[in-house]
Amino acid sequence: MFIGHFGLGMGLKKTAPVISLGTLFIAVQLLDLIWPTFLLLHIENVTIHPELSGNRILEFTNYPYTHSLLGAIGWSLLFGGIYYLVKKNRRNAIIMALAVFSHWALDFLVHFGDLPLLPTNHSTHVGLGLWGSPVVEIIIEVILFVTGIVLYLRSVHFKNVLGKIIFGVLIALFILVQLSSFWGPAPESENALAWSAQFQWLFVLLAYWVDRNTVKIA
Fold first, then answer.
1. Structural domain boundaries in the chain
2. What pLDDT does 183 receive?
3. Which of 52, 96, 185, 186 is 20 to 30 A from 159, alpha carbon to alpha carbon?
4. Distances from the Cα of 115 to the Cα of 67, 120, 123, 153, 162, angstroms
């Protein structure tokens, strides 16, 4: 699950138009934005299988703090709480918390039973494993992504051509990264994977830039 998460972030603009698209992207992708740093710090781990292909290249052997059910709930409450302290908007704070948790919920649909319920060594692991049915998984992602784009475009007016160009670049990058995950080479190492995953922050920055060049539809 990749573009599906970001598609949900774009779609949430319709529900919470005052929240920047960049902030929405941080929320829906927070667990995966933290995860690469945890890899670099060797707090969490992943096993790479270059002999395999597609979604089976990465074996998520240890990510109890970012991707356990309890961990996801904790990050959701933390992010929503910080948003409330800064913005004093209870409704949008709840939306932010739910957006963070949506990441775990969508991952639950696709992961191969590797999501721990608790951040412990002997926790039960869950996941419906739709990665094993790639056509179904891709259809779900495309629906989320396209729906998100449509809802976002119905929520804002672009103030200038620059905003439209940046948004187009953002969508193109999403598609390129998604395609490369299907047909690109396996990462050379865990550290190489972690550094490449930090590229996601570019999407966040572009999203903030896009929103600066839009106005919400009344």
1. 3-216
2. 74
3. 96
4. 6, 12, 9, 34, 41
